[in-house]
Design brief:
The protein is built from 13 helices and eight strands. By secondary structure, it is an alpha/beta fold. The termini are close together.
Amino acid sequence: MSSSSPHPPTPQGPGSVFQAPNLPTGFTDTFTSRYVDTDGLRLHAVTGGEGPALLLVCGWPQTWYAWRLLMPALAQDFQVVAVDPRGVGLSDKPLDGYDTGTLASDLVALMAALGHHRFAMVGHDIGMWTGYALAADHPNHLDRLAVAEATVPGLSPSPPLLGSTQSNDRLWHFAFNRLSEVNEQLVKGREHLYFGHQFATKAARKLPDYAVRHYIDTLACDPEALRASFAFYRALDATIAQNQQRRTRQLTLPVLTIAGAQNSGELVGNTMKLAAHDVESLIIDNCGHYPAEETPEDMLAALTTFLAPYRHQDNHDTALR
């Protein structure tokens, strides 16, 4: 691994693989936590497995832990990198850089530091925003892109301010999260109320209490984590402007979209069809916003099929182990 620090410390605490709750049996035999320093930014990633590189990017308000149920099976065929992006989990939380152009550049630098010039990527929620930016801005680095459970601001049409009750229930947090200060004041000390409501209302199959508690405690234990969680939304003006430029050139790589029938449905596929020529779409029944945790078997089956051509290619980079 190449980094600006020859001996970065070992990640510790509940946000690391070493103390995360209720991991699959044998998880830590395959996966380890590491810090990677890139251009002054330290990112936390959980890595393990053999094969071509596969980057997993979580959404709001989750961490790398969202992928835990998929990672052991994926590691049989891929070198898995599940990252805490800028502002998330154990990664650095600078004051700025939360537009998707910067987030995408962060991830290219992360993968390069791990020895991966080309890779495939799976992104959920804000990870889908970042995946679109990475595919558009860095096409020579990305082989295949799978995205789940989001639309892309500046690419897909914005919903009306006064839409249906169902739309408002699903999207009201966008406007709230973009506020400059009062949202932090309202949520601080009430993180379990605010974020707990997000998980409870967006899942068709209830997430385990220990997982929800893990995500919320991660945000509640550090004021910088709460501030950073809103920073992705406060950067939306920049992200929207970037996406309005990106949409002028179509993506040529294969794209898989995954959605829960009880949440985004056709919106995810319709969004990426605005951006790419080669789009395959899956809508999972009895699933809400969190397919990697609500229906991991269905998501794993879709990813296995979609990534098979990438897995069997002969020209992949070899990671610096």
